[in-house]
Structures are given as structure tokens and as C-alpha cells.
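This follows on from our talk about sequence and fold. Go ahead and set the record down below:
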Amino acid sequence: AAADTMTTRSFDVMATRLVVVLPADRVELADRVAEIFAEVEATANEWRDGTPLSQVNAAAGGEAVAVPADLRALLARGLELGERTDGAFDVTWAALWGLWDFEADPPVLPDPEEIARRVARVDYRQVELDEAAGTVRLARPGMKIGLGGIAKGWALDKAVAALREAGLTDFHVVIGGQVYAAGHKGDRPWHVGIRDPRGARDDVFAALAVTDRSVSTSGDYERYFVLDGTRYHHILDPRTGWPARGLRSATVIAPDATTADGLSTALMVLGKQRALALVESMPGVEAVLVDEHGAVSQTSGVELVMLHPPRP
């Protein structure tokens, strides 16, 4: 599709903004994309009463709960990422929910003893997924599954599949800090910017040319507070209950959005050296990292266009 024949539709879903760019003569497909995101949220939202996932959490330590096949498949991907990242990505992180208040004024640190108590309930290996029975069980009381670190990517992959099934080859979908770019924009690849972690919201320090790939960025700048000179942000290390250290942002480029979504969070927890080593071991996956000093690192296959150095 020529660039001037594309059109853009926007929706509010999953507590963020969904933007769909596709050929103008197929604009009706944007509504289907929004429906897919709403369907995933209705199944995998852990905070909304009555969803299958909230029912699993309510039964923690008790009986297994029957859940839809799509939720089991999503959860299986989350557990695989837990194994691949040695627990840096952990779907049971939600036992920590509510400990940190990033809106409080003045900001207050949680009680370390309470953090330790909650961390004892975090362990993806205690999730019992029985595909044959169609059930999920949490082994211990107080455990909770939260899929916010992977559900947007999962929904994005489902949306991409639906658009391809409808015959589209050129389109661009953005949800929060994640993109899937298919085909081309006119005669060029799509270009995706990487936000400067210490710049304004629209300050991009580098750009990537992307075709048939998903790009996801996680960073310490979305929800945070600074106390006594230390930045405390919302990406928690599930093994400690404290904000991850060492990186300001992690950007992942992957063939599928689910991997990009979950892995960008995990890399923030792993830190630079372990993150780079992990991504180099994953065929077709690349990463761009900004460390705590503003230095940029990238894996071997990234073709990055630097616009300016990240700000101090």
C-alpha cells in the first residue's frame, strides 16, 4: 500500500492507547483489532472481578480452576519466559501488588519486612497448569498471577494474525510502549523510535527500520518517584520485591510481540551483561539497552540510527 493510502484509528483499551495504521480501504479492520484487545483483557485481567484469571487468583492454595484455552496458552508462554529468564520474568509477581505507591506525596518506601513476606509468595514454578484437564492452580495461599507484562503482546500477536488472515501485508499497530510493524510504509520500512529515558515523552534518541517485527520498550520513566536521590520505579525484580537496577530502558526487537513484550521487562531485571548474553542466544531477537549512566549497548544484529546520545 502506498504511504498516502494509509489511515489511522485510535482506541482506548487495556488502560492505554491503541493506534492502528492500515490501508484506508480496509479501515473497518481496525475495529476488529480493538475487539481482540478487549477480548484478551476480559479473560486475562487479574484485577477485574469475574474474569477467569481473577478466579484463579481467588482460589490460590485451594482447588484448580477451569479456564479458557486462550488463557492457558498465554499463561504457558509466561511460564516459558520464566524458565528462559531464570525468574526475571515471573507471572506470579502480582503478589507484590499494592506494596509500592508511585503516586504518594510525599513518597514513602514500603516496609522491608512486608516486601519479604510478599516475595515468599512469588514463584512461577508453583503455578500448576494442567492442559489435559483445562485447569490452573496456584499452590499456595496469597499467590497471584498478573499477566500485564505479556498480555498486550499476546493480544498484538492475535491482532496481527487476524489482519494477515484478512489479506493485509502492510500495517502498523501500537499499544502502549509496543509496536508491530508489518510490511512497508509505501516503498520504505517502518521506522520505530526509542525514547530517551531522561528526555520528554516525544524525545527519541535512536530509530530502527522495522519490517515484520515487534518492538517493545520497558523503562524506569513511566511510573516512579525519587527519594533521597534514588529513583524507585514500577518494574520490580520479582525475586526481591524492589525496583530493578542497572538499566534505564530495554528495547527488544522480535518476530512476535509476546516475546518482545515479556522479554523487555525481564531484561530490565537481568541487567546489562546478562540481558545481552540472553538475547544473543535467542535467534531472531535483538535488544538495545540504556544503562544507569546513559550508555547505549546493543546486540550484534541491530542496525541502530543514533539521533543523539541519551541525556545524562
